[in-house]
Amino acid sequence: MHSISIALEGLAGQLAAAFPDAPGLHHLDVSFALNDAFDPLAWLNAQVSYPQFYWQQRNGDEEYAALGAVNRFTSLSAARQFLLHFPAYPDTRVVGVNAFDPRQGDLFLPRLLWQRCGGLATLRLQLWSDTSLNDDAQRARDFLQTLRDLTAIAPLSQQVMSETHRPDKTGWMNLITRATEAIAQGEFDKVVLARVTDLQFDGGVNPAALMAASRQVNFQCYHFLMCSDADNAFLGSSPERLWRRRGSLLRTEALAGTVASHHDDAHAARLGHWLMNDDKNQRENMLVVEDICQRLQRDSGVLDVLPPQIVRLRKVQHLRRCIWTALQQPDDAQCLLLLQPTAAVAGLPRRAAWDFIARNEPFDREGYAGSSGYLSLAQSEFCVALRSARVQKTSVRLYAGAGIVSGSDPEQEWQEIENKAAGLRTLLLKD
Questions:
Q1: Is residue 396 within 8 Å of residue 235, measured between CB atoms?
Q2: What does UniProt list as catalytic (predicted)?
Q3: CB–CB of 122/34 below 8 Å?
């Protein structure tokens, strides 16, 4: 018998107990064996309940698969307010995504949550009701009856029918020119501009299949998938952490500055050396570092900025500086408002750059350059939602952006977003 089946039987047994006819929150946990080939993403893909959420930390230490919602939240702030009502359950996790505008989001308290930390895994069934836990226990029993057995994810096989960019290359050149002129006039120091690529296929695209394909080749990345319902999914493989909090200890980073990668190690090393010593990219990265430090200064203690390092990915390489501190009062809602959108995805000053984006980008970013992850009273972690895509039945929208500063060259910036979009595009198109 598969380990997931054994764990579900254990939960069903616990659920047979009597529960109070009163409001409250309750967890049922069963340890999960990791001695078979269980893939939580494939298990999610086999289910017919929504929402569904998958998330894997970039170092592989943590992994989550969440199914069904006991409660849903339209902002991280609302989710945190909910968790504050249950201080006796500091490890209750809410999962989901925050939009580019951090006041908006799609997060939920999962009915069923598979979670792995290192070599330990747990399957958790969550009960919550503002009227009767006994009634919610019955809803949970009904929910368990809908679960399906795990099946392998069929690989992507659809053929692309059309591909369009917004803006197109001419529009992009004009957009970069407007941005550099605004920078020269002192409106802002940096703005991060994005492009979408809309792909239309001859059949439905399975977002879990795209996520599985990306997970196989895009290493050193967070992998995330949020299926709000059967027809709408947002996913990505992002190299960038927005923040990680353990108690009051916070880790964040400035990931800004980009050059192409290469399959040849020596060639990639030469490109990385150029990036480490390029004035434009170093300035771009330090602008982000300084902005993060200024934002965190009043809410934290000493800020430690670590030396720069090169992050080598499949298609691009980035310049990264990690920033560590301790918060005076842990508050994930406050962290989100302080850190998102960062200068690495919006610009500086943030408000002026954000206004320029709103006036000039010909599309709504929605979740792109927002964040994906989980929060609890005890800890939280979110990645920046980059290298991402929105899947709606037969269409896929790919997102990619580039930081524009004084001296930016439109042609080079176009090549940069081509390289970034290739992380997912190459999995969909067989060039």
A1: no
A2: 190 (proton acceptor), 240 (proton donor)
A3: no
**pLDDT digit string (tens) for 205-231?**
999 999 999 999 999 999 999 999 999
Range with the poorest average pLDDT among 35-39, 122-126, 306-310 = 35-39
Closest CA relative to residue 427, chosen from 230, 268, 215, 233: 215
Listed in sequence order, the DSSP H helices in 253-317 are 265-277, 279-296
19-29: pLDDT as tens digits? 999 999 999 99
Residue 186: Cβ-neighbour burial (10 angstroms; 0-12, 13-18, 19+): exposed
3-state secondary structure of 129: strand
Cα separation, 395 vs 282, in Å, equals: 37
Task: State pLDDT tens for residues 76-89.
Answer: 999 999 999 999 99
Hey, which residues are catalytic here?
190, 240
pLDDT band at 344 (very low <50, low <70, confident <90, very high): confident
Annotated binding-site positions for Mg(2+): 284, 416
Query: Is cis: bond before 362, omega within 30 of 0?
Result: no
pLDDT tens-digit series, residues 134-158: 999 999 999 999 999 999 999 999 9
**Residues comprising the binding site?**
284, 416
Amino acid at 320: R
Residue pair 237/221 in contact (Cβ under 8 Å)? The answer is: yes
The whole-angstrom separation of Cα 34 and Cα 11 is 17
The CA distances from residue 123 to 33, 67, 110, in Å, are 10, 11, 11
DSSP of 330-394: --HHHHHHHHSS-TTTTEESHHHHHHHHHHH-SS--TTTTSEEEEE-SSEEEEEE--SEEEEETT
DSSP string covering 40-92: HHHHHHT---S-EEEEE-TTSSEEEEEEEEEEEESSHHHHHHHHHT-TT-TT-
Q: pLDDT band for position 431 (50/70/90)?
A: low
Residues in the chain: 431
Q: CATH number of the domain at 160-209+240-428, please?
A: 3.60.120.10
Report the alpha-carbon distance of residue 333 to residue 380 in Å, rounded: 11
Separation between Cα atoms, residue 403 and residue 257, nearest integer Å: 8
Asked if residue 215 lies in contact with residue 224, where contact means CB atoms within 8 angstroms, the answer is no
Per-residue pLDDT, 430? 66
Which residues belong to CATH 3.60.120.10 in the chain?
160-209+240-428
